[in-house]
Amino acid sequence: MHIHILGICGTFMGGLALLARSAGHRVTGCDANVYPPMSTQLGAEGIKLIEGFAAEQISLNPDLWVIGNVVTRGNPLMEAILNRGDRYISGPQWLAENVLQSKWVLAVAGTHGKTTTSSMLAWILEAAGRQPGFLIGGVPENFGVSARLTSSAHFVVEADEYDTAFFDKRAKMLHYRAKTAIINNIEFDHADIFVDLAAIETQFHHFVRIVPGSGCIVIPAADSAADTAVERVIRKGCWTPLQTFGPGGDWSCGEPGASGFEIRHQGKALGSLRWSLMGEHNRNNALAAIAAAQHAGVAPAQAIEALSRFQNVRRRMELRGTVAGVAVYDDFAHHPTAIATTIAGLRAQLGAQSGRILAVLEPRSNTMKLGAMKERLADSLGGADSVFCYTGGLGWDVAQALAPLAAKLQCHDDLHSLVAAVLAEARPGDQVLLMSNGAFGGIHEKLLAALATAQ
Question: Which of 19, 117, 303, 370 is the 20 to 30 A CA-CA neighbour of 310?
Answer without folding.
Answer: 19
